[in-house]
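Shipment paperwork, digital attachment
Item: protein structure file
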Amino acid sequence: MTTTEKAFQKCQVSIYSNYRKFCQEIIELCEALNNDETDEAVYYLGEGGEFCLMDLVIGAHFHFTHWHRGMSSLEYAALSATGSIFNPRHSTLDDEDISACFVYDTLKELAESHHRNPK
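Attachment content:
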């Protein structure tokens, strides 16, 4: 199993349970994508599930665009990491991209919960 696959699996778990951990793990995933020798097929990891790897990166990127707490925040570091993989070129999250929207909405709920009860 590659570093990218391991990092993606971690993100698939933390997105439902721990906001700070997810932020750290999405950074690790993006670093792995930038460092591993991968082909395009890696972006389809998880396809057939709730989201594939690219949907995760896109949904997370738009989430962190709205939810970062300034340039010194962990969320901003995650935004920068996802931006190294995905460049929206001034676009917005497409409502028809159901899986990326699912990621965005899931992270929004997790962030709201985290900010009410930080751990």
